[in-house]
Design goal:
Elements lengths: L5 E7 L2 H4 L2 H10 L3 E8 L5 H12 L5 E5 L2 H13 L8 E4 L1 H4 L7 H5 L5 E5 L5 H17 L11 H20 L7 H9 L3 E3 L2 E3 L1 E2 L2 E2 L4 E7 L2 E9 L3 E3 L35 E6 L9 E5 L4 E5 L1 H11 L7 E6 L6 H9 L5 E2 L7 H4 L2 E3 L8 E9 L14 H22 L10 H14 L12 H30 L3 E3 L4 H7 L3 E4 L4 H8 L6 E4 L2 H10 L8 E5 H10 L4 E8 L7 E3 L4 H10 L1 H15 L2 H7 L14 H25 L9 H13 L21 H18 L1
Helix pairs in contact: 3-4, 8-9, 10-21, 13-14, 13-15, 13-23, 15-23
Length: about 725
């Protein structure tokens, strides 16, 4: 409903005032509302002290104030706030039920100084009993006080007092109390008393009256108007009807504003925000400060500046600000952040990294850059692969998998074809050679054996499709390996650097050395550099010639380096998570939340990509030039789907063929004799299926035409003898 994120609590310095603080702070924290300050005012506070407190509050950016005190002290606070100009546009005042319950009894001059205050009070339904009691109360009051003509309606506290008296009377009657009855018995009877009183259902829980509904009121004109209701189980509602909408009705805030103020002010004296920026010695793409002697002025530009300008334009309200360059600040940003912490500056814009230590000093927005720490190294031409370079296009896993599938496919084809196809017959050695020759000849589509079974034909069609894709990919990748110049990084991992003891570089003035020492690098091998030119020179010379083997830095800096020195360098290795770049403000500044929301909006994200290309170029351009870096071997994952389909089809064909064989020869498989099983196995491997016409033709092979009848007679006899023994 409202987007207020900070508030200040002003309360009475008494047991009554301090009683609700713990519960109030806990409730506000549950809604992510931060209490910036809590001001205790003595009951007899002087006007001078009250003025001093209010003017100090006026200097803070928070404009939401919660007041909890008795009506007399509250009236003085609002009177002095009016004089201080704090009951005007932009301020929000919320008072507790102590004020809301007595609004009708306050004088007109006190009401005039409370215009726009929002408060609440227990809700009492205007029943017939209430109206009758109100009439009798006014009549009795005028009778006892004939000099008073303007009698207010009885307040909620008065109704509670009336119900409490009835509760005491009921307790005495129910407990049959007498002068000798112990007081603890009377107290217990009161605590257990429950009835419908004037103010609603009367009942005590832990000695406290339980209230189910409060009405929210807005003090305007000469009194208060209802703007909503609050119930513990439903929250804030516009009415008590069943399908009532959530929220409040129209509220008139201080200054007669109908639109809810944002709850904070950028600057108490309406001056522009002073945003400090660092003067950098390198990486001017992020922040660059130039001075004009003619006009004695400075100009600030860069990636971070464009991002901040664009984000501020996307805030739902205008914010005036100006950049304040700080010289000699690029080596240590902590000095700039200390200015923000001490409120000598209103914020900081630049390539400021979020760290845990800095978060204790200032408040950061959401990061507006990629987060992470990585390294950039030089690249070298890949050396000749030698006599085994033909193995490089495929990984070891893919080679082994392919070999296994060649053998499995040949085996399944033999199982299906050897009993019906003379092309797959012969001695065991001949059959073994035929299986492997057929399987591997499919690699170049030179197999000559004619398949007789539709099962094997279907399986081989699927297998040939896999072989076609695999062979084409192998040929293309081998051609690339032999013809395209490939580059390899000079260093492949952080462990290589640690093991060799090479020098490594980092961005001067950054937090990178801290992380490098955490990784295990010795301080004496860490070298600091400030510009992209120094990065390039150090990497070119190398660790053995006064340079370094790798440069560690945050990803935005590495992108800036590679945008200028794309060829010859590459970013590799794991990315270590860091906070990223963000804008800094004093702790508790409400604008931090709004700026973070603007950074995360889709429109701002698209604009940020455009700004990044403006300052660092297209990130894909350098990637396209170095896409040959790394492994070029094809892995199993690239063909996993094809192998799955081929293996599934081959397995199904094998199961179907085995099922057919068992069905045809089931009578011969029931003998459990070991000798019979060996005879059966020999029959399965070597026997032909003479029921097929292919084995009864006049000519099968040129060299078998003379021996065919004898062979048929011999096998038929063997088959007869085998079956007779079975």
């Amino acid at each position: 409903m409202f987007t207020w994120r900070t508030t200040t609590v002003v309360y009475e310095d008494s047991p009554y005032g301090a009683r609700i603080l713990a519960a109030l702070f806990s409730a506000l924290q549950g809604y992510n509302i931060r209490v910036m300050d809590s001001i205790a005012l003595p009951v007899g506070v002087t006007d001078d002290y009250l003025d001093k407190v209010l003017y100090n509050l006026k200097e803070t950016p928070t404009r939401v104030f919660i007041v909890h005190m008795h009506p007399d002290l509250a009236a003085r606070v609002f009177y002095q706030a009016t004089i201080a100009g704090m009951m005007s546009d932009g301020y929000i005042w919320i008072a507790t039920s102590t004020i809301g319950s007595v609004v009708e009894s306050l004088s007109a001059d006190k009401i005039d100084h409370m215009q726009g205050v929002v408060t609440f009070r227990p809700y009492v339904q205007a029943t017939g009993h209430i109206m009758n009691f109100t009439a009798r109360f006014k009549s009795r009051f005028l009778l006892d006080n004939p000099g008073i003509h303007n009698v207010h309606n009885p307040s909620t506290q008065l109704l509670w007092a009336y119900d409490t008296a009835w509760a005491l009377a009921k307790a005495v009657h129910i407990a049959r109390m007498s002068s000798s009855t112990p007081w603890r018995m009377l107290l217990g009877a009161v605590l257990n008393t429950a009835f419908d009183g004037l103010s609603g259902r009367f009942g005590l829980v832990n000695g406290q009256l339980q209230l189910s509904t409060h009405e929210v009121i807005n003090i305007v004109s000469k009194g208060a108007r209802k703007v909503g209701f609050w119930m513990p189980e439903s929250g804030i509602l516009k009415s008590l009807e069943t399908n009532s909408a959530k929220g409040l009705k129209q509220v008139l805030w201080p200054g007669h504003l109908a639109i809810a103020p944002k709850g904070w002010d950028v600057s108490s004296n309406r001056r522009p925000l002073r945003m400090v920026v660092p003067e950098k010695q390198g990486f001017n793409q992020f922040v660059e400060v130039t001075y004009s002697p003619a006009t004695n002025s400075s100009t600030v530009r860069g990636y971070c500046i464009d991002i901040f300008d664009m984000v501020m334009k996307n805030l739902p309200y205008p914010v005036a600000y100006q950049y304040v360059p700080v010289s000699d600040s690029s080596r240590n940003y902590d000095n700039l952040l200390s200015l923000v912490h001490e409120k000598k500056a209103d914020g900081m814009v630049g390539d400021t990294t979020i760290t845990m230590r800095r978060m204790n000093v200032v408040s950061f927005t959401k990061p507006f850059t990629d987060t992470g720490l990585s390294m950039v190294v030089g690249v070298k031409k890949e050396t000749d692969g030698g006599m085994w370079i033909f193995l490089q296009p495929l990984t070891t896993t893919l080679w082994i998998t392919s070999l296994a599938f060649f053998c499995f496919t040949g085996f399944v084809v033999w199982v299906v074809e050897h009993r019906i196809n003379p092309e797959f017959r012969g001695t065991p050695c001949q059959q073994f050679g035929t299986v492997f020759y057929f399987a591997f000849s499919t690699l170049v589509f030179s197999h000559k054996e004619k398949l007789e079974s539709n099962l094997s034909r279907f399986m081989v069609i699927i297998w040939l499709f896999l072989v076609l894709i695999l062979a084409s990919s192998y040929t293309a990748n081998l051609t690339s390996v032999l013809t395209v110049q490939r580059l390899q990084p000079t260093v492949t991992s952080v462990q290589d650097l640690l093991r060799n003891g090479d020098y490594v570089g980092y961005h001067n003035g950054s937090i990178v050395p801290y992380w490098l020492e955490k990784m295990g690098f010795r301080k004496e091998i860490l070298l600091a550099y400030s510009t992209v030119e120094e990065y390039s020179d150090a990497l070119r010379r190398g660790s053995g010639n006064g340079g370094v083997s790798a440069i560690f830095d945050e990803i935005p800096y590495l992108k800036a380096f590679l945008s200028k020195y794309c060829e010859g360098y590459t970013m590799i290795g794991p990315t270590y998570r860091l906070g990223g770049f963000a804008f800094a403000f004093p702790i508790g500044t409400p604008i931090v939340h709004d700026v973070s929301q603007a950074i995360l909006s889709p429109a701002v994200q698209e604009e940020m990509e455009r700004i990044e290309k403006k300052w660092f170029g297209d990130p894909g351009a350098c990637q396209s030039k170095s896409n040959s870096i790394g492994s070029s071997s094809l892995g199993f994952s690239s063909f996993g789907g094809l192998f799955l389909v081929s293996g599934t089809v081959s397995g199904l064909v094998l199961l179907i063929q085995l099922a057919i064989f068992v069905y045809q020869e089931h009578g011969k498989l029931w003998d459990t004799s070991l000798h019979k099983w060996f005879q059966c196995l020999d029959f399965v491997v070597g026997a032909k299926d003479w029921r097929l016409p292919i084995f009864n033709g006049p000519r099968i092979r040129n060299d078998d035409s003379v021996n065919q009848p004898h062979e048929a007679t011999t096998e038929a006899s063997a088959m007869h003898d085998f079956t007779s023994e079975l």
